[in-house]
Amino acid sequence: MFIRKITLWFSRRSFQNRIFLLILFTSTIVMLAMSWYVTDIAKDRLHYQVGQRALIQAMQISAMPELVDAVKHNDLKRIKSLIDPMRSFSDATYITVGDENGRRLYHVNPDEIGKFMEGGDSENALLNAQSYVSVRKGSLGSSLRGKSPIQDSTGKVIGIVSVGYTIEQLENWLNLQIGSLMFPMAVLLLILLYCARRFSLHIKKQMLNMEPQQLSQLLIQQSVLFESVFEGLIAIDSLYRITAINQTARRMLNLSQPESELIGNNIDSVVSPKAFFYDATQKNKKDEIVTFNDTKVIASRMAVILNNQAQGWVISFRSKDDINTLSLQLSQVQQYADNLRAVQHEHRNLISTIAGLLFLKRYDNALALIQQQSESHQKVLDFISRAFRDSHLAGLLIGKYYRAKELGLELVFDPACYVDATLPSALSSSEWISIVGNLLDNAYNATLRHSGGSRQIECLINSEGNEVIIEIADQGCGIDASLRDRIFERGVTSSNSGDHGIGLWLVRSYVEQAGGNIIVEDNIPFGTIFTLYIPLSRDEHHG
């Protein structure tokens, strides 16, 4: 019952206190065991040393010629005069001298003289002439004593000498020795207590000041959360070994192995290419378009920081189809809607003008306007259809042409424009449209924000060499110096509108994905020139 109460009380303590109490209990047991062991060793050593001391004294006294002669003649007075000085210099409790029958001739207590020596341990000395150490109870209590025979010149045993140390005296000496160890033992115990306290605090800190049950619950929640998100999640340590990977990630990466078999493997042995994981490890990455195991994804990488050191990274990624929805909105659906609106406005203005001329009965002017518009539209349509064999790109450029006219701008195509029917497969049709559409939109916005330059936007797209060259030049407001190095980052824009800051980020992502690069230059006298070089194949990276 008592043990059960102690166990219940112990289980109600905090983890930190339980660790402290456990270490304290263990340390105390160890200290007690050490004390018992040291005491036992010290006791055995003390008994051996004192026994040898008693034996040596007994042998030295028994070999004294004067004592031999006094015992031989049974001269008690002379014996007393010989032994008393020795007693004053010896630390022994007593010295006893007996005759050949074991009757006392000298004793510390005069009343004991003439009586037989007690203890029954004198036979070997008297009968066999042996010297030895024994522990017996005598007239002064239990003692450790050395016994040695007294022999005459012929070797006959004529007496015995016994030098003894009482057990009580030995206990006092042992206590003095143990007492000298108490202070260092107490200091050691205090050090152990301090270390136990520091260790418990350290464990508590490593556990984020949570109890084990809280950590267990947190781990379960993390596991459920890790598996419940719709994004792929991979956690790696500082050595780039996988520590966790959820089911979505395994499905998106076409991995058939269970999580238990993947944990501990290097990330580059599971996911390729490995550049996303190893590049610029000191920086976090957000929403980069990359390829994992031949699957295009939008990936982010966040460092796990502990004590200002990166202990690993968490990589989250989702299918590129998610961002394609946004891309299509920016470069297709929204583009086509704008194109239709531009054509509608253009057509409405033309019809209104013709209706006015007919009302004024200026039939020749109305006919000339119809012919002029027809020729102008047909010329642009003929050029675009002839120069751009890709139907998606041609449709975009027609819409952008009318959109420019609606905005009071002029989209001018370089005569060198030519695009084959098949664009590099590194990018899909929607991605090519996104690149061109976003660059033209930026040029339109920059031109509209600047009233001092020309209203023309020049466009060159050519795929006749080893790479596709896209060059868009405007004479707009240019790029602010503070934003020049960051214009391709997500969310960075010079516009005050909240729906900007994505277009150029998409452009950069797609160009890097295809192995190309972008050059941004100032136009003369105003504006900016964006030049893109995209190789026809992934290996032909433009330098």
TrEMBL record:
Its EC number is 2.7.13.3. It is a multi-pass membrane protein. It is found in: Cell membrane. It is an enzyme of class 2 (transferase). Keywords: ATP-binding, Cell membrane, Kinase, Membrane, Nucleotide-binding, Phosphoprotein, Transferase, Transmembrane, Transmembrane helix, Two-component regulatory system. One of its GO terms (molecular function) is protein histidine kinase activity. The chain crosses the membrane at residues 20-38, 178-196. Residues 342-538 form the Histidine kinase domain. Pfam families: HATPase_c (PF02518), sCache_3_2 (PF17203). It catalyses: ATP + protein L-histidine = ADP + protein N-phospho-L-histidine. InterPro entries: HATPase_C_sf, HATPase_dom, His_kinase_dom, PAS, PAS-like_dom_sf, sCache_3, Sensor-like_sf, Sig_transdc_His_kin-like_C. PANTHER family: SENSOR HISTIDINE KINASE DCUS (PTHR43547:SF10), TWO-COMPONENT HISTIDINE KINASE (PTHR43547). This is histidine kinase. It comes from Pseudocitrobacter cyperus. The lineage of its organism: Bacteria, Pseudomonadati, Pseudomonadota, Gammaproteobacteria, Enterobacterales.
